């Protein structure tokens, strides 16, 4: 049978989501815990392989298993064997044609920047700190240029292995809540470091180093060398994955960290 799970985690102590032989990863911890509850080896698939330091409140995984457990049993049992910075939020028996990655229609990420001089004492790895003045309106104006289906080579990591750099961005929203600047972006899929590279370029527009016109020309150049630096991983969250209604996965409010509406 096939089981889908919702997962949330803090990523700063892990070398990314994907299993690695010698490093601690989120996938490695999940497969270890699930194998205990299943009483058999478990290999899972995920909706999005987040990078080292990246968090998730809406990750989705699936795995195949022969042993029957209730949905509640998968949640409670697995959480009992996971470290405190990884948690299962839901479990659901799904049909065999469900795939956490390939059935997904959209992913949504949220990047949270604390715009202040002083670092926080709480959730120090839950945000990235950037000092100085940032014009949110200009960043929002520039961000609208990438909505739709485009070649995102300008925001593609050099070691990205995707066959195509074409992606379809559904929306981008840049807003400020007090000292926090929030970048909210949804797309059918993302290239490696794509969100952080977008944020890094938008920040150059926000602090006045570059113009909105530069951002548009840089994006059209399809050349990563012309774009801004990659933003820090801390503060990036995978907050939601959208699937067809036929799978009837539990709905999750896309709120990210608790202090945001």
What does this structure look like?
The chain has 261 residues and is of the alpha+beta class. Helix content is 20%, strand content 28%. It contains five helices and ten strands; from the N terminus they run βαββαβββαβββααβ. It has helices at 26-38, 71-79, 136-143, 194-206, 212-221, and strands at residues 2-9, 44-46, 55-64, 86-94, 106-114, 128-129, 148-151, 166-177, 180-187, 236-242. Strands 1, 2, 3, 4, 5, 6, 7, 8, 9 and 10 form a ten-stranded mixed beta sheet that branches. β2 (44-46) and β3 (55-64) form a beta hairpin. The radius of gyration is 19 Å and the shape is globular.
Please tag this protein with its features.
globular, 261 residues, alpha+beta, Alpha-Beta Plaits, single chain, 10 strands, 28% strand
Draw up the topology in text.
Blueprint: E1 2-9, H1 26-38, E2 44-46, E3 55-64, H2 71-79, E4 86-94, E5 106-114, E6 128-129, H3 136-143, E7 148-151, E8 166-177, E9 180-187, H4 194-206, H5 212-221, E10 236-242
Parallel strand pairs: 3-10, 5-6
Antiparallel strand pairs: 1-3, 1-4, 2-3, 5-9, 5-10, 7-8, 8-9
Helix pairs in contact: 1-2, 3-4, 3-5
Report a brief summary of the structure:
This protein is an alpha+beta fold and 261 residues long.
Q: Structural class of the helices, strands and pairings?
A: alpha+beta
Write the CATH fold name of the largest domain: Alpha-Beta Plaits
CATH class of the largest domain: Alpha Beta
Biggest pleated sheet: 10 strands, mixed
Which runs of at least 5 residues are low in confidence (pLDDT < 50)? Answer: 254-261
Q: Give the proportion of residues in helices.
A: 10-25%
- Superfamily (CATH H level) name of the largest domain: Pseudouridine synthase I, catalytic domain, C-terminal subdomain
What is the subunit organization of this protein?
single chain
Radius of gyration: 19 Å
Number of structural domains: 2
Proportion of strand residues? 25-35%
Q: Could you give the count of β-strands?
A: 10
Distance between the termini: 37 Å
Mean pLDDT: 93
